[in-house]
Amino acid sequence: QVQLVESGGGLVQAGGSLRLSCAASKGTFSGYVMGWFRQAPGKEREFVARITPSGGSTNYADSVKGRFTISRDNAKNMVYLQMNSLKPEDTAVYYCACGSRYTANRGDYNSWGQGTQVTISS
Question: Which of 32, 51, 77, 87 could serve as a FRET partner for 112 with CA atoms 20 to 30 Å apart?
Answer without folding.
Answer: 87
